Amino acid sequence: MRTPIFNSSIRRLLCLLSLLVLVLNACSFSLLNIPGITSTTSAPVPVSPSQQATTPQPAAAITFNVALPTPLRAGEVLYLSVVDEISGLSLNPVNLAMQSMDAQHYSATVPFAMNSVVKYRYMRQGKLPTFEDTSADKAVRYRIYYVTGPGEVDDVVSAWADSLFSSPGGEITGQVLDASSHAPLPNILIAGGGQQVLTDSAGRFNLEELPAGTHNLVAYALDGSYQTFQQGARVEAGKTTPVALALARAGMVNVVFTVSVPSSTLQNVPIRLAGNLYQLGNTFGDLQGGMSTVASRMPVLAPLADGRYSITLALPAGADIRYKYTLGDGFWNAEHTPDGAFNVRQFIVPASQSPVQVQDDVQTWQSGTSSPILFEVSVPANTPASDILSIQFNPYGWTEPIPMWPRGKNQWVYQLYSPLNMLGSFEYRYCRNDQCGVADDVQTAQGQPGRPVSTSLTPQDLQDTITGWNMFQPVTAPAVVGVPVTARSTGFWAGLEFLPNYDPTWQAWLPLAIQDVKSRYANWLVLAPTWSVSRTDPIVFSAVPGADPLWADMLDSITHARAASLNVALFPSVNLPTNLPAWWQSAPRDQVWWDAWFKAYSAFAVYHADLATKTSAQSLILGGDWVSPALPGGQLNGASSGVPSDAEARWESLIADVRQHFTGQVLWAVAYPDGLKSVPAFAKSLDGIYLLWNAPLSGASVDDLKAAAGQLLDKDIQPFQTALGKPVILAVAYPSVDSAAIAKASPQAYLQLPGSLPAQANLPAQAEAYQALLAAVNERAWLGGFVSRGYYPPAALQDATASVHGKPAEDELWYWFGRFLGVVK
After folding, report:
1. Alpha-carbon dihedral sign for residues 328, 333, 336, 342
2. How far, in Å, are 295, 314, 509, 648 from residue 298 at the CA level?
3. CA-CA distances (angstroms) from residue 801 to 260, 749, 750, 761, 769?
4. CA 39, CA 33: separation in Å to the nearest integer?
5. 402, 374 in Cβ contact below 8 A?
């Protein structure tokens, strides 16, 4: 599973790289101090040599004052580390030594270009670098300072990575509004005290457990659409500091970037613009290998007749744009200065009614003396024509994949220029549609090492052949058995539900997945956005960049679905740090905790209600197994969950609030069979039931399975539906394994990333289960719809999970859906 790895893997990465620094006996300090990936500890400068501004800006001196929780240890030095978000937070910092004011107070004055948005953090340097942590024992990604003139900022370090927060804390709570319309602003990054959170749909935010003192509070739009706002906020232990922030919308300016590239650049290869804004490929998350950017999300320049490349982008006036040109992402194959350093450019977008021209020149793609490496690869003939081949590199851990360049006739190529001087040897592997670790070449799949390669002073041409794809082998699909199908009314759901295990690399491939859904004659797409629980006590869950789809990601996905004439339902859920029962068991579940839980869940539900309204989605699905202990009379491991006695009233109020924000269908999700026993009374006020189904069936033939399914539907579901008087949508998760239809595991066991189940795939068994259940649904007009759950969007795979993407069961949906909806006779 591809998951954010900052807290564990990145720390191991830094330790390994620091050890490498010691081995190399570097003569001056750098976080990495490997040729081509350097930082500076020299006298402060407005912009480092590897970050030369495109347009000269006047500079302003900023004094950074910081209070430490404890004095430094003997021999340690404190650094202000200005990070490079495009290359990787830990891979190209500018580290500036700070001066001691006393044992726990340090200061440094640094000039920066006016209107710069400075991203930085504090670091202790002893034998190994140690970065600051938040009060929740999470690494500080970065702090933010907005340069509007000479200024001073006071910071307080909560803790270090090798210690715990031990001081009494306070909190900052507030709301961000549009300065003109006074409408709440979602998805605004709030940075303060080393913490980062995104505002919810009401523009609200909370920064928990901040150390006492004055903190610089910054509101920053991920896409620059609003002007950056900052103010000081005083926090006292045990108290809450309320703030109200009003952001001014930025006017948009057309900026034309035109760049000349080295003559050695292969003709017509995709040159991307990697940058610090959302629309320039920045996910604002901690991705594989310490990266924050994804190549497939970056804009691609168009080649001009004279050999240059160009792109016109609408960018916000006043925005601080940090960017670079690249043949890969922000780290691999990006432009460099002649001395081998990363070249990160800065451009403050001026206010202008006419297009602004930016003329740039890439001096070199290379770093150091190593020659480029050419990767040429042949792929199997069964590779889907719509697939893009990706390559992934492992210098110290796998980094984010990069799309290769098509040559035609199942041939792909990629030339790697930099930073080859970083390590002498590394690994690489191929995959489909950026899904490395899942949709891999069979030679490097499922934990096998990558293909080895070493740098060289002479050019290399590596020619590889992929003999097969992991979990995607030629399959003879069983013929779809034609039977008479009764067309349903226009309200019938024939849909697919996307897998909730979102990854930022999915976004580029979602339009193709949506077209695949449409080609199955589906009329509904159920999207399953997540929020992640970052704290259990006090309860905190929100959309976490890199782990969950952000507001802008969902806007993009829903827009594509609506453009394909699909009805859209949102079925939000949470990512828990442990399994469901263990998490609930670990929660305090006292009165204070329950109050916080209902407040958090209400914000979660209203957020997705607002998202549905914003995008004209037709339905919102609430509930699911994870909220069961919070329902009236909630149980946990056979005993009372301790839910408050007024839970029914709380839920009714919550649903009423959701109705105020969203006028479309609101459904309640319950799992069969246990969920039917505890359907809350307030469900009768909703518009239907989304029944999560993987009921055990038995039989030697499809007809036997159909009969078994029909018996369960008639015995358990029809009486329930009749009593409720609401539509019931059957939401099905059957895995591709032996005896798929009689699997006894819960649906959650199969709603996993492909490859995460050890079971051997049996695709015909899944298809037979679908055929039997759809045939049973065909004979029961009282059912309101059929949805296939667990669809894996970015690539067709033939594994054991419940996804039907690329499997024979998908053909069953094509047959039945078209006829249920009367599209096919």
Report:
1. positive
2. 5, 14, 13, 47
3. 47, 9, 5, 8, 14
4. 7
5. no
Q: Convert the pLDDT of each residue in 230-258 to its tens digit.
A: 999 999 999 999 999 999 999 999 999 99
Reading the block at residue 329, the tokens are 């992402």
Q: What is the pTM of this model?
A: 0.92
Q: Give tens-digit pLDDT for 736-767.
A: 988 766 666 556 667 888 888 777 888 999 99
**What is the structure's pLDDT at 822?**
95
The closest of 89, 108, 111 to 4, measured between CA atoms, is 89
Q: What is the spatial distance between Cα 157 and Cα 67, in angstroms, rounded to a whole number?
A: 6
- Give CA angle at 560 (555, 562), nearest 5°: 95
What domains lie within the chain, and their CATH numbers? 6-235 (2.60.40.10), 252-361 (2.60.40.10), 378-465 (2.60.40), 493-820 (3.20.20.80)
Instruction: Give CA–CA dist 820/813, Å, rounded.
Output: 10
AA identity, residue 360: D
CA atoms of 173 and 193, how far apart (whole Å): 13
Closest alpha carbon to 524 in 722, 675, 735, 665: 665
Q: Using CA atoms, how far apart are residues 787 and 220, in angstroms rounded to an integer?
A: 39
The strand pair at 229-235 and 99-102 is best described as unpaired
Q: Give the C-alpha separation, 394 to 451, whole Å.
A: 10
What's the one-letter identity of residue 683?
A: A
**In this predicted model, what pLDDT tens digit does every residue of 194-227 receive, in sequence order?**
999 999 999 999 999 899 999 999 999 999 999 9
